[in-house]
Amino acid sequence: MGGPADAGRHREAPRAGRLVREVLKFAAVLVIVGGAAFGFISLQERKGYGLKEGSPAPGFQLRSLSGGTADLGTLRGRVVLVNFWATWCPPCVQEMPSLERLHRALGPEGLSVLGVSVDEDEGAVREFVARHGLSFPILRDPGGHTAASYRTTGWPETFIVGPDGTILRILVGPAEWDTPEALAYFRGLLPRRRAAAERSTSPTR
User: Which CATH fold would you assign to the domain 4-195?
Assistant: First the structure.
């Protein structure tokens, strides 16, 4: 049986968890303000402090809200957008509609959009997805292990992975993912589009 010291520690643990959550929420607000100032909204890229562009994307197998398992390794040959987010993160909420529009626009052409939620409360994630009508796969990373393997520095943080499994771009902060410039960028990465462009520019024999 624990003594008074144990009881004190048990009372402090939830308090510490709430403090961490409030600090992260405050940091998220700073990200959205700073993001607007530095142009993240227009798909400006920023180098990651951990993983580097051009390095292999860490593999993962995560459970989706639909009940299946998403394995990054099975998506080799496709361009994959991996977005780390949380329901309580204001800039994450801000960019979700444009991520959904990007998925609807380029999913049929071969772009895979994966949302990796770091929320602990699955019910909150399900309610958020239903309220916003999200149709791209939402994966669960409640312990943050996959986010840690990607060395995320804040949320949202997005990794664009090429068909060969290497990281092409790392973006920290919210973005408008379906601007004409963004759509043109992603279309230029898609294998079928690139192959067609190369055929059209190759010299005739």
Answer: Glutaredoxin (3.40.30)
